[in-house]
Amino acid sequence: MRDTSSFSGFSRRGLLAGVAAAPALTATIAPAAAQPAQSATDKAKAALKDAKGTKLAILGTGAGPVAGRTRKMTSHVMLSNGAAFVLDCGLGVTDSFAQTGIPFSALRSIFITHHHADHNIEYGPLLVIGWIQGMQLSVRAFGPPPLQAMTQDFLRAYKTTIDFWAEDYKIKPLGMIEVSEVSGAGPVMQDENVRVSAILVEHPPVKPALGYRFDFHDRSIAFSGDTAPREEVARMAKGVDVLVHEAMYTPAVEGYARALIAGGSQVNFDIFMAHMKADHTPLEDVGRIAAEAGVKTLVLSHLSPALDSISDETWRTPVAKSFKGEIIVARDFTVL
């Protein structure tokens, strides 16, 4: 329960005193205040409105299931010819999708790279809220097993809620959607907008964990997913316009772990760092993979650690030793 004791000093007398102390209104109109800088969400909305060609909006750029950060958990949306495709559903994806201005009725497919909370925790809520907001019941989902059972279980858990809304709004209830489980490398789906393929990546103990490539009519976009350095990513991303690759700045990860321990965390430093090194890609390797793939633009995202105190130049410098193309350090609502 929220503690309201800090508000005990608030009173009608205090409110009236505050009003009395305010400057008196006059007939003179004050000069208009300077307009605030355009927010990241406003910029994203403007870039996506009536977009010509395929656009990628990165909705969440932070690694790990950590709430309350400036950077939300991993999620993306691609918009092509009025159709939207979501990749990963970290916490915040539903709000962020809505803030782009893309209507939920545009959502065609959802893709999951792997079953860690920072990639799938809001998959179910996106379906339910999306349905209430006009999402088509023909939406499809793709991802590693047991995505079908997970979808069934979630919708079963929320059946009462869904039925209440369906009765209230006199609309067809959200039932089981079409789910295709992806267990290995190869083609995933194709429609009039995009051809999607997948690879297996290395993210122990999670198996399978996937990377994806999306080939639209006008551009190609690849996602590494969460992975240790893998040559398969370079091969998948060969010649793409945009590669979105996870990125780990090892010195800062070590500092972050030590700070957790100093703050009372029970995490073991050696175990934590062994996990990070086995599961994620250091910046130097990201640059090497992008160079081997010959990509036009490399986007660093799923940043480990997701600390605003780390400058963009710090992220870029180790990558640029190998990769000479465009390097973008993603922020939430970056649009390409």
The name of the CATH superfamily reads: Ribonuclease Z/Hydroxyacylglutathione hydrolase-like
Low-confidence stretches: 1-35
Number of extended strands: 14
Assign the CATH architecture.
4-Layer Sandwich
What's the overall geometry? Answer: globular
Strand content: 15-25%
CATH class: Alpha Beta
Characterize the biggest β-sheet: 7 strands, mixed
Query: In which range does the helix fraction lie?
Result: 25-40%
Number of helices: 12
Instruction: Determine the CATH topology.
Output: Metallo-beta-lactamase, Chain A
Strands of the widest sheet, in order across it, are: 6-5-4-3-2-1-14
Count up the domains. Answer: 1
**Pattern of helices and strands:** HHEEEHEHHEHHEEEEEHEHHHEHEE
Task: Calculate the mean pLDDT score and round it.
Answer: 90
- Computed over alpha carbons, the radius of gyration is 23 Å
Whole-Å distance between the termini? 43 Å
Secondary structure elements and pairings:
Elements: H1 12-21, H2 40-48, E1 55-60, E2 75-80, E3 83-89, H3 93-99, E4 107-111, H4 117-120, H5 123-132, E5 140-143, H6 147-157, H7 159-169, E6 178-181, E7 186-190, E8 194-203, E9 206-216, E10 220-223, H8 231-236, E11 242-248, H9 250-262, H10 269-279, H11 283-293, E12 297-304, H12 312-320, E13 326-329, E14 334-335
Parallel strand pairs: 3-4, 4-5, 5-6, 10-11, 11-12, 12-13
Antiparallel strand pairs: 1-2, 1-14, 2-3, 7-8, 8-9, 9-10
Helix pairs in contact: 9-10, 11-12
Describe the structure.
With 336 residues, the chain is α/β, with parallel strands linked by helices. The chain has one domain: Metallo-beta-lactamase, Chain A (4-Layer Sandwich), CATH 3.60.15. It is built from 12 helices and 14 strands. The chain has helices at residues 12-21, 40-48, 93-99, 117-120, 123-132, 147-157, 159-169, 231-236, 250-262, 269-279, 283-293, 312-320; strands spanning 55-60, 75-80, 83-89, 107-111, 140-143, 178-181, 186-190, 194-203, 206-216, 220-223, 242-248, 297-304, 326-329, 334-335. Strand 10, helix 8 (231-236) and strand 11 form a beta-alpha-beta unit. Mean pLDDT is 90; it is low at 1-35.
